[in-house]
Amino acid sequence: MITILVLIAVVAAVVTLAGSSARIVRQYERGVVFRFGRVLPATRGPGLSLIVPGADRMQKVNMQIVTLPVPSQDGITRDNVTVRVDAVVYYRVVDPVRVAVDVQDYGAAILQVAQAALRSIIGKSELDDLLSNRERLNQGLELMIDSPAVGWGVHIDRVEIKDVVLPESMKRSMSRQAEAERERRSRVITAEGELQASQKLAQAAEVMTEHPAALQLRLLQTVVEVAAEKNSTLVLPFPVELLRFLERSTPEQSAPDAPVPQPPVRVNGAAGPAVVP
User: Fold this and answer.
1) If phi over 0 gives left and psi between -120 and 50 gives alpha, with beta otherwise, what is residue 22?
2) Region (Disordered) spans which residues (predicted)?
C-alpha cells in the first residue's frame, strides 16, 4: 500500500515537473530563455519547448507587424503656418534577444521617437510639402525613426502621414487662392481661344478674297443652317459685291438730247425768234 502511494506521488511530481517545464510557442512568436538571469543566445522556435524548472524563465516576443498610430502633433511649419499632423508607423521585431534585453518597453520607446520625429519633420517642411509631397516626407520620417530602432532589434517597415489639419482662416485663404488661380486660367484659355479664332477668321477672309465664290457658298450654308431651325422669318443678307457686279454690268446711258435751235422766222420782213406753240 505504501509502495503504491509512493509511486503515485512520484508520478504526480513528474507530471507537475513536466508541466512546469513545458512551454508552447506560437508560430508568430519566439521564446527568449533566461537561465539564472542570464539570457541564452539561442531563441526557441514555434512548437513545444522544454525549460529547466526553477532555473529558466521564458519570455515570448511577438514577431508580427505592429500598427502603431501616432497621436496628432501640433507644430509650426518653416513658412510659419500652424498645423496638426498625425501618422501611423508599421514595425516588426527582427532580433527578439535585443528587444528583451536592450529596451524595457520597445513599443512605448518607438511611440516616443515617432512623436519627436513627426514634430521635427513638421518644423523642417513647408506647408506645400505637407500637402503635396508626402512620399518624400514619409521616407525622411521613416529614416528618423528607424535609426534608433535598429539598435533595439526593431525594423520600421513603413511610416505614413495620415492627415494634415489646417486652421479655418488658412483654409479660407487657400480656397480664395485656388479660386483666383482657376479664374486666371479661365481667362487665359478664353484669350487663347479668341486669338486662335481670329487667326482662323483672318485666313478664311484671305481665302474668300481670292475666291469670291467661297463667300456665296458660305452665305448659302448660313441660310441652310437658319432654315433648319423652322423659323417663320428668314433674314437674307444682300452682299455688297453683288451690287457692285450689277453696277459694272449695267450699260452707260447717253445724256439727254440738247434742244435743236429753230430757224428764224421772218415777220413783215423782219427776223425774229421762232415761237413754238
Assistant:
1) beta
2) 250-277
0.90 exceeded by the pTM? no
With beta carbons less than 8 A apart as the criterion, state whether 66 and 91 touch: yes
Please tell me the distance from the alpha carbon of residue 217 to that of residue 212, in angstroms, as a whole number. 9
Res 261: pLDDT: 52
pLDDT in tens, 47-70: 888 888 878 888 899 999 999 999
User: Does residue 265 contact residue 275 with C-beta atoms inside 8 Å?
Assistant: yes
Q: What pLDDT, on the 0 to 100 scale, is given for residue 187? A: 92
Name the residue with cell 422766222. 265
pLDDT tens string 189-235: 999 999 999 998 888 888 878 887 777 777 777 777 777 766 666 66
What letter would DSSP give residue 44? B
Query: Is the C-alpha dihedral spanning 169, 170, 176, 179 positive or negative?
Result: negative
Q: Are 239 and 220 in contact (CB under 8 A)?
A: no
At 47, list the grid cell: 512548437
Cβ proximity of 144 and 137 under 8 Å = no
Q: In angstroms, how far is CA 33 from the centroid of its own chain?
A: 51
d(CA 248, CA 240): 13
Q: What is the dihedral of CA 94, 98, 100, 101, to 10 degrees?
A: 180
pLDDT for residue 207: 82
Q: How far is CA 247 from CA 29, 214, 217, in A?
A: 107, 21, 22
Band the pLDDT of 13: cuts 50, 70, 90: low
Residues 6+ apart with CB under 8 A from 275: 265
**For residue 115, what are the contacts with CB-CB under 8 A and spacing of at least 6?**
70, 71, 73
Q: Are 90 and 158 in contact (CB under 8 A)?
A: yes
